[in-house]
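Problem 3 from the worked examples.
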Amino acid sequence: MSDSFVQVFLPFRQDASLRDEYSSHFGKIRVGKVLEDLDALGGYIAYLHVVGASIPLAVVTASVDRMDMHGELPVDRDVSLSGHVSYVGKSSMEVTIKVMAVLPESGITLADMDSIKFLKTPLPASALSDQLILTAKFIMVSLDPATQRPSPSPQLILETDAEKELFALGAAHKSRKLQSAQNSLAQHPPTPSELSLVHTLYKEYMQYLDPSTGKQKPENVTWMEDTKLQNTVLTFPQDRNLHNKIFGGHLMRLAFELGYLAGAMFSKRPLQFVALDDIAFKRQVEVGSVLDLIANVVYSTEEGKMVVRVKAYVVQIGDAEKTKFLSNEFWITFVSIGGVEGKKMRVLPKSYEECMGYLEGKRRLEGPTVGN
């Protein structure tokens, strides 16, 4: 497991130009930029693991199992991104990544933050904050370059009890993900309690739609369809990966930033990233493709949390009907911060399809966070 370990750095404290590149107009770190780095790191770690396989293997990102923000990315601290392969199935690999702040008193200089130097030798724990900033689990798949079909990945050699525990945790994550897919709303009807909630939502939205009730929709309630934001993007070679397809991290950043805007316009205040749940890269995106990204707030709570769903479609511009296929679906959880005190905004569906999106968002918000 340790053979795939990699530690790299984002020296925000010591590198003013990097800090400026990653900063938003709020004076915060742009999470979307860091998502690109995490995906690139996940791929690099997976490639380290498959080096030495019986045949040369290619690696692609299959999904982001889960990503949780435990604290704010500091703009005035150097940041460590470290990870390794933590579980291997047949052709799939789980890559666990942690983001932590480097302590200023550690004495680590800008010259010391060399990703090659620390490729096999991580910083001592005493140099890092004991507070996790972010944890993420990427699922990578090894492919036979000739056939582009899944090919067996080298198995892990578990040397310590801690590694065995991580491996068991990865197996549990995989089992839970399979169970979740089997119980998805696309496969099965809602549970009895969820059906009861749908009926409650139905009664609420009908009273606002029926003129005879005389009831007006409260100011803090927004129809789900009115939270929609759309962005059409042309992809370029600069955003390609090793396989000449559009880099998954680039797609994640585009989706995150559109999702942030949809959530911020809905809540009317700035947002803090909470989690990103189960992104599946359904189809690879060719260089030069036209991407159509659509974001909606699908669920919200009284505490100001919200789930934003972003769908990324590839548009066939040579087709007279402009047909498109779904490439990715992103589920991002935010919480609104600051602003005027009062009732938080609520999103309200008014169709069965929107109610299913509401329930899916609720499930994802209430789902488990990433473990070790």
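Problem 4, a separate protein:
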Amino acid sequence: MKTFQDSFLYACWCSIHFFGASDPPKVHLESLNLPDNTVTVVAGNKLRLEVPISGEPAPRVWYGHFTEPPKIRVPRHLKQTYTRKVGEAVNLVVPFQGKPRPKVTWMKEGQAIEPSHVSIRNTDCDSIIFIRKAERTHSGKYDMTVQVENHVDSAIIDIQIVDLPGPPQSVTIEDIWGRNVALVWTPPKDNGNAPITGYTIQKADKKTMEWYTCIEHYHRTCITITDLVVGNEYYFRIFSENMCGLSENATQTKKSALIAKEGTIVKIPEYSDHDFKEPPKFTQPLINTFAIAGYNATLNCSVRANPRPKVIWMKNKIAIIDDPRYRMFSNQGVCTLEIRKPSPYDGGLYTCKAVNDLGEAQVDCKLEIKG
């Protein structure tokens, strides 16, 4: 009597295809030479393929599984640079999926990770990267790869370990005048693996050498210290600052700054007077307007000039002088002509003309009276 294992040797290939989770599973067998056999597929958590042998009361059963492509589920906080301070612990859990159990590999900057520096533990559904005491050498891009047979998925985790910055490279006194001292310095050579966020400037009297803070969180690399005491001699020092805090040491000026009691000469720069004079120029022209007979109408424009220009209003090129039907206003360069209860006779071409010693300018518009 044949057993299931003996009969299965005649099978060259067997492939099973599912066409949608809601449809019953369909089976496709190729080159299967098992005479008088029947095939049964039972849906469940796993695929079960039963091949009863003719005459056998208890058929042998073969169990199989499906291949699920791998997928890394990167947590939201790891999709951007993950930052920790030197000495802190790093414990990252990166979940993934895939069947059968995927093969997980980690690389740092294209190189294999030294187990003595970084501890990695993999389970069926996640990978844990653990650093007990972070150092700046742990910074970099970690490439995680998950593989199931020929299917591969990868993700990059960017880890940044930051530390206190070094002090500025040099601090010099650029100038001294009155009760003021100008300082200039260069950024630190070591920024602690994080951007420099500011500087703290301190001063000390040469007699006491007690340090007092002048300004904190200063962003530039030059500053003027003011309101110093006349007759005192000062030293200055500067700390660098990043997200971890102030540098452990400060850079001090090699020379002192003496605030002299007398003989101070202040150089007053000479400036030439600016000529603000200009000829008239209309910044807002007149606009063609429609008005209703019997209702007041206004025309507006604006002019810029220095000295103040003389404004003349004209109708059909004839100056409007002492006409009670018209009122003229000029305020801060805004010129207004008010026409009281106009009639169709008041329609026509209106002109506003501005004149001063440097020139003249004019604008026109048409006024049409309806009614």
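Solution to problem 4. The chain has four domains: 4-66, 70-162, 171-258, 278-370. The longest helix spans residues 4-8.
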